[in-house]
Amino acid sequence: TYWTWIEDQIKVAKKVGWISTNDNWMRYVERKTRRTQLLNFPSQSHGATMLRIASDMFYELWQRGIVPPILCTQHDAVYFNADESDETRLSEIIRLVMTQAAIECIGMEVSCDISVYGHTDGYKPEKWSDTHEYLWESVKEITKENYADWDAVES
């Protein structure tokens, strides 16, 4: 089971002094390293690896004219600016890329949720922060050619 596996990972990490991902991203383990940090490391670090793999794939697809360029990534999300009429096709490509990235990273599929935000119903998290505000202002600046009147869109 997962819990048996993670407990074994923690025991080994404490014994050898480090824990690593499948692609050798390492975290050193000291006496002061908290158990929760070791429990969290595999999922967070492999998630980051999956995102790097997917970003490389999206870049290659963008170079070939198949997908628009990535606007940004944030934690476990990839943001694109695309024509709403391309939603179905792009969503399927995103799902396939994320699935392939997971397989390359950990050898199995993981679930992938896709959310689409149109120009009239932009993304706003429940807890809005300065970081979100900065990202939103950046997206507006990058996409201002497509949406000249952002005030109308936001209202």
Largest sheet: 2 strands, antiparallel
**Unreliable segments of 5+ consecutive residues:** none
Output the structural class.
mainly alpha
Q: Tell me the strand order in the biggest sheet.
A: 1-2
Number of DSSP strands?
4
Portion in helices: 40-55%
Q: So how many helices?
A: 5
Q: How many angstroms does the end-to-end distance come to? A: 49 Å
Percent strand: 5-15%
In round numbers, the mean pLDDT is: 86
Give the helices and strands as they follow along the chain: HEEHEEHHH
- Coarse shape: elongated
Cα-atom Rg, whole angstroms? 19 Å
How is the topology of this model organized?
Blueprint: H1 2-16, E1 18-20, E2 26-28, H2 35-63, E3 70-74, E4 77-80, H3 87-106, H4 130-142, H5 150-154
Antiparallel strand pairs: 1-2, 3-4
Helix pairs in contact: 1-2, 2-3
Q: Can you characterise this structure?
A:
The chain has 155 residues and is mainly alpha-helical. It has helices at residues 2-16, 35-63, 87-106, 130-142, 150-154, and strands at 18-20, 26-28, 70-74, 77-80. The strands form two sheets. Strands 1-2 form a two-stranded antiparallel ribbon. The protein has a two-stranded antiparallel sheet with strand order 3-4. α1 (2-16) packs across α2 and α2 crosses α3.
Quick structural summary:
By secondary structure, the chain is mainly α. It is built from 5 helices and 4 strands.
Using brief descriptors, characterize the structure shown.
two-stranded antiparallel sheet; single chain; 155 residues; mainly alpha; 53% helix; elongated
